[in-house]
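// run 5 | inverse folding | seed 20
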């Protein structure tokens, strides 16, 4: 596992969570930030120095990192990543979704000198790990249903760039969609619809169904104008596994309607932001099998555009 010459780019809330993990893993790392306000808050919470004035300024002062974790605002992710790669960084973990449009991702992917991964920490939840084990024991997944409903009345008042809100399905809801297709496989045949409109988003209701390349039937329904919550239901021949909320696994056995909560066997998702410890550890070890590569994310963007009804 690489534990030295690592840079954490950004000093916001997400970077604070990454810093906790990196410190626990006994990594030597620099934190690069821009503003003094967020840097001060970061230093108070982590007892770790932040080198301010931005990435370009600090690249002139220090040798570029071998590895970098990029946790800046969504609209700056691809810009910062491109600068790092140009400076010689060979391996990057970029916070989801990596970019706001597919063209930016494609430009990054064409730079062959670096390995690039997109951080979808929910793939590493203990609840998901346990669900995968049960699915394997049961002989595989038969079908899946998922819901990525967002609370639009709250989101419209959030202090985010309008560009980010207009791509909210990619910026935020993709956590659920990525996890669903990670578990069941990418669509082979499917039909999809989007309808409605919000003040801050071009579509409001989403519905679709199909069959994945793994032979799993899937469906989804999300209405951002109505109450709801994120969730995934996984059906095998023996159980219905319910991830609602995604951090918790509930199970219903065949010929029963009783729901049982499966207790976590790990404290990692309690000590750290759920999924973040194992995701970061996998990235540092070069264990890429459960990470989302930039090539996979480009393919996923095609799905997100169709689901959301975005224009290319």
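// decoded
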């Amino acid at each position: 596992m690489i534990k030295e010459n690592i840079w954490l780019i950004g000093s916001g809330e997400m970077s604070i969570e990454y810093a906790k993990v990196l410190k626990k893993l006994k990594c030597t790392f620099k934190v690069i930030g821009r503003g003094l306000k967020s840097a001060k808050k970061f230093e108070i919470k982590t007892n770790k120095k932040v080198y301010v004035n931005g990435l370009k300024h600090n690249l002139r002062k220090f040798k570029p990192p071998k590895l970098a974790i990029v946790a800046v605002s969504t609209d700056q992710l691809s810009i910062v990543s491109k600068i790092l790669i140009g400076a010689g960084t060979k391996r990057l973990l970029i916070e989801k979704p990596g970019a706001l449009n597919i063209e930016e991702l494609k430009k990054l992917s064409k730079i062959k000198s670096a390995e690039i991964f997109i951080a979808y920490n929910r793939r590493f939840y203990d609840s998901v790990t346990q669900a995968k084990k049960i699915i394997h024991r049961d002989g595989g997944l038969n079908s899946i249903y998922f819901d990525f409903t967002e609370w639009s009345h709250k989101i419209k008042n959030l202090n985010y760039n309008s560009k980010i809100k207009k791509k909210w399905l990619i910026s935020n809801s993709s956590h659920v969609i990525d996890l669903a297709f990670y578990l069941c496989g990418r669509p082979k045949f499917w039909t999809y619809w989007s309808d409605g409109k919000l003040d801050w988003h071009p579509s409001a209701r989403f519905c679709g169904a199909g069959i994945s390349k793994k032979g799993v039937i899937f469906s989804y329904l999300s209405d951002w104008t109505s109450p709801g919550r994120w969730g995934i239901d996984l059906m095998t021949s023996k159980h219905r596994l319910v991830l609602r909320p995604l951090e918790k696994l509930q199970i219903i056995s065949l010929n029963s309607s009783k729901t049982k909560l499966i207790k976590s066997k790990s404290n990692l998702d309690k000590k750290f932001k759920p999924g973040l410890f194992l995701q970061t550890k996998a990235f540092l070890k070069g264990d890429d099998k459960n990470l989302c590569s930039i090539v996979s994310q480009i393919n996923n963007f095609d799905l997100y555009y169709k689901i959301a009804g975005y224009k290319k």
